[in-house]
Amino acid sequence: MVDRRDGDEVDLLDSSLRTGSGALLSTTLFVLTGIVYAFVTDPAATGRYFFAAIAIALLLRPVRGVSQALQKVGSERGERVPAYFGLTLLFAVGYLLLMVVATLVGADFVTRTTAFDRALLLPAALLAVSTTVSVVTDSLFGAVGYPSYQAWLNAAQAALRLGLLLVLNPFITTAGDVMLVVAGTRGVTLLPVLVWLGERPQLPGRHEIERTWGFARWSVPDQILDRFAFNMPTLVLGVVASPAAVGVYEAADRFADLGATISWRLSSPLLTRVSGDAAAGDETFAYLDAATTGGTGVTFVLLGYLLGAHEAVAQLAFPSVQGVFSTTVLVVGGVNVFRGFWTLLSHALEGAGRPEFSFRTKLYGLICSTPVTAVFGGQYGAVAGAVGYALLNIVVFGLVAYYARGTFGRVPWDRPLTLRLTAGLGVAWAVTSGSTAGLAAVGAPATVVAVGGAAACLAGFVGFLAAVSPRTRHAAWRAYRLGRIRVGGASRAGE
Length: 495
What we know:
disordered C terminus
């Protein structure tokens, strides 16, 4: 059982470093599983899985909205986490039952008009239950003051999932098989963790219901829009294009989205800290500029890598449509620099008690971008999805910055750090291009070219930032100290 702490007691740097390391591992594995899905099945089956899994995640966003209230309100001083936990579980069970009935009623219509297959109904139901448990567990970690544990839990699930997919490769041929593997790995990792946390759900009182409603009435619709905004191209392409187009776009998106996904993970400790400080009356938020800017760092690294190595990646992932994959991954990777920033900033706005701003920005972004993918998706497939995704993120970025100025009195943006990250992007691009060209010239296989380019890119970017940025050196030193403390604690535990 962990010792609970309040949001304002969280050390943001330490929590972000722990989150970042776990997120880097979990997101890397997440990207690899996307490619492995295509490897163990085929593009069409991969597309069906992605479409079904993303549709399920979208339908379950109300659960995410209520669990977000669990993390935000539960992390404040004096609040009863077990009562908010119990309220979240009651809502989740009731909502799942409602979704089961709706799915049974509308199954024929869905299978006729989308990439969903009727044979996927039972695996999809198990996937939905496992997704709900995952969402609630993540929020409970944040509520008790340990948001960094979320990333490491996801890394454990991804590692187990990847191993099972590779071991069971001869037996996995359909999207339903992949769903069963995903649901199973979640079950064996999440249920023991919930017992270990030691938080026993309790019936909520009027206070907990009112606090949850005050936040969730905006958080629930925001989470629905958030999921639709993030996966809009996949969902729209699943209706207007082929399953193969969905598979190409989603695989490219997973690869290009590594940096933005880490920014999203880093937004959890930021939300917890901002929420705790706001509830305690400390609204200076002196750390906000560096947190929102520095949290986008990996998006710059990945863009530099994609600019220099996209051809090698395309040859590995989808050799039959290399040009489409390359174009898609470059567009998504480029705009994710903006997505990483607005993701962090919108979570800070939620922590400050303004979830309605996050809802409005995504609504306006979808209004501007969805027609682009819907109109051109049938002709241009994954590329149309990438263009729609880029337009959405640019609109949301501008609106989030506008609302942040009104809430915090400024746009939390560290200009010197932005200049260093941009220069680091140029270095990463140069060293990646040089290393991939050199490896290809000596006849190295595509796998070696891609991996060698990634190593050179990371070394060039980190080396440059460490040379020019004192704060980067401080963060690196603190990460080293935390690693030594963890290793030392593990060795003492084994004695």
